[in-house]
Specification:
Layout (H helix, E strand, L loop, with lengths): L1 H20 L6 H18 L5 H21 L18 H20 L1
Helix pairs in contact: 1-4, 2-4, 3-4
């Protein structure tokens, strides 16, 4: 179980680092570019089966969900560079979060 915990924490580390950049980088376009470059690099280093499916589902699915949450007033964002409603970097973060979730579930299922 300790090994599984270590692997899950290792997979979660890029998400923690991405989130830690949010207050440091105020330009949403630059932050989205950094996220995109990180995602490409991370998938180049290690790509597992269905990673791209999870990435696309997180990117597209959660973007639609976020639009719904914003339109109903459940969420608001101070940074709204993506269609004037949310930060441009948010779909990238969610997309890679889905990859991380998929990988962690696979590890925990063993």
């Amino acid at each position: 179980m300790a090994r599984k915990t270590g692997v899950v924490l290792f997979y979660a580390l890029p998400i923690v680092l991405m989130i830690s950049l949010i207050p440091l980088i105020q330009n949403d376009y630059v932050l989205a570019g950094i996220y995109g470059a990180c995602i490409v690099a991370l998938l180049f280093i290690k790509r597992e089966k269905n990673d791209l499916v999870a990435l696309a589902f997180g990117f597209i699915g959660i973007t639609i969900a976020e639009f719904f949450f914003i339109s109903t007033g459940v969420e608001t964002f101070m940074r709204n560079s993506f269609f004037g409603v949310m930060p441009l970097w948010l779909p990238f973060l969610w997309g890679y979060a889905f990859v991380t979730i998929k990988r962690c579930l696979r590890i925990l299922d063993r």
